[in-house]
Fold this sequence. Notes:
With 269 residues, this protein is of the alpha+beta class. Helices cover 32% and strands 26% of the residues. Strands 5-6-7-9-8 form a five-stranded mixed β-barrel. The chain starts with 25 loop residues before the first helix and ends with a strand.
Amino acid sequence: MSQGGGFYPNSSPFNQSQASPGGASGETKRSELSHSVRPLTLAQVIKAHQAHTDAEWTLEGNEVGQVTIIGHVVNVTEQTTNFLYTLEDGTGKVEARRWREQNSEEDADKWGDIQVNQVIRVTGHMKAFGNRKYVNAVNIRPSEDPHEIYFHTMEALTVSLSLHNGMPNGPPIGQKSPGNASAYAAQSSGMANDDMAEYRHLPHLQREIIRVLLAQPEHDEGGVHVGVVAKAVQKEGVTGASISDALDALMDAGQIFTTSDDAHFQVSR
């Protein structure tokens, strides 16, 4: 029985941070992400979102590269340039789109003749048109094993729980430290005091942002995404606006700067 071909770079989802799969930075991270494959239920596809149209898709704080889904075909729409398959797996309903090959024989050889009521596996990238999400297929094949859809659901849930809770018998990735501090603050607590000495004059929130940026492995090249910063420092009384103001103040003071885009930050050192 096919298992969908793995899910993340470095062979395991258990090694990933909540910020991004692979722990890589910059272009390396994006390259790994584009070649990784994560199994998702259709409900998870529906739940995934983009911060903006050019942003990576994310699910529960983790970036998503390629996805593999499986479901019953409940509708097939044939268009001039593409086929649109509507899939259902008991958790939701999602469309998968595949584009026609120029040669009709090549098209039939590569994609086969998918019919309503078949169970198929689709691998591809998530896209959105208007408010409708769909999977842009790079591969489609019929599922011949009646148990594959159940295996896929368990695999998708296992990956999600592992990203959220960490390895079995290991500390949860999102585990809170005493005092309701985030995992990122807990990770940085072992940082030498000298590393933060030059920032003692800053307001508390700005110091915490610096601490989070220094604690992340991505800070060396690609910078740390603003979503990671916000999740790490957000607590009662800390709003999105106050985090944004603190980031602006740190940039104006030359303490931090943006890297690959306006959403990734790095400490000026």
